[in-house]
């Protein structure tokens, strides 16, 4: 893993305990749209579902949110995400870039509240919106370079 952000479609993933939020970029890496979240069924099935999405969308790389603690340290969740990212990269033969996802879930929740989305509807949307925010952040950083 590393900075595998290349030109072409990129898949953004927000790895959670119950769902994996998903977003995909346009082919030139400027805009991002959310896709339906994947309900977690275990790494093997989750990676297969991500692989199908990646093939359908024609992605060339993946950005996986790294849940750092607010002080920037890695906790147990970050260790799990790193392990998942290693396995994902190996099984899909795609470069996986880990990206600081601090506050993306809070950002997506605030966006949904401000947009008037009801509480019971927010849960299913929040994860993919967080994936969209983290992917857009990674692409914006790459595009500035």
Describe this structure in words.
The chain is of the alpha/beta class. The chain has one domain: YqgF/RNase H-like domain (Nucleotidyltransferase, domain 5). It is 48% helix and 24% strand. It has four helices and five strands. A five-stranded mixed beta sheet has the order 3-2-1-4-5, with helices on both faces. β2 (19-25) and β3 form a beta hairpin. α3 packs across α4. The chain is globular. It starts with 8 loop residues before the first strand and ends with a helix. The mean pLDDT is 86.
Tag the structure with descriptive keywords:
Nucleotidyltransferase, domain 5; about 140 residues; five-stranded mixed sheet; alpha/beta; 4 helices
Class computed from helices, strands and strand pairing: alpha/beta
CATH architecture: 2-Layer Sandwich
CATH topology: Nucleotidyltransferase, domain 5
- Oligomeric state of the chains present here: single chain
| Strand runs, count | 5
CATH class: Alpha Beta
Number of structural domains: 1
Major beta sheet, strand line-up: 3-2-1-4-5
The string of secondary-structure elements, in order, is: EEEHEHEHH
Report the mean per-residue pLDDT as an integer: 86
Distance between the termini: 20 Å
Annotated CATH homologous superfamily = YqgF/RNase H-like domain
Give the helix tally. Answer: 4
What Rg, in angstroms, do the CA atoms define? 14 Å
Outline the low-pLDDT stretches: none
Helix content: 40-55%
User: What proportion strand?
Assistant: 15-25%
């Amino acid at each position: 893993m590393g900075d595998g952000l290349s030109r072409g479609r990129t898949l953004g993933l927000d790895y959670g305990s119950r769902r994996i939020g998903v977003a995909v970029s346009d082919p030139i890496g400027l805009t991002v749209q959310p896709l339906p979240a994947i309900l977690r069924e275990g790494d093997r099935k989750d990676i297969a579902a991500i692989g199908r999405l990646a093939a359908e969308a024609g992605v060339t790389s993946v950005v996986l949110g790294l849940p750092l603690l607010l002080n920037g340290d890695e906790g147990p969740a970050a260790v799990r995400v790193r392990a998942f990212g290693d396995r994902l990269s190996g099984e899909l033969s795609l470069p996986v870039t880990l990206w600081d996802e601090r506050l993306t879930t809070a950002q997506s929740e605030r966006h949904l509240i401000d947009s008037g989305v009801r509480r019971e509807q927010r849960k299913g949307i929040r994860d993919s919106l967080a994936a969209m925010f983290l992917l857009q952040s990674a692409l914006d950083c790459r595009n500035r370079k």
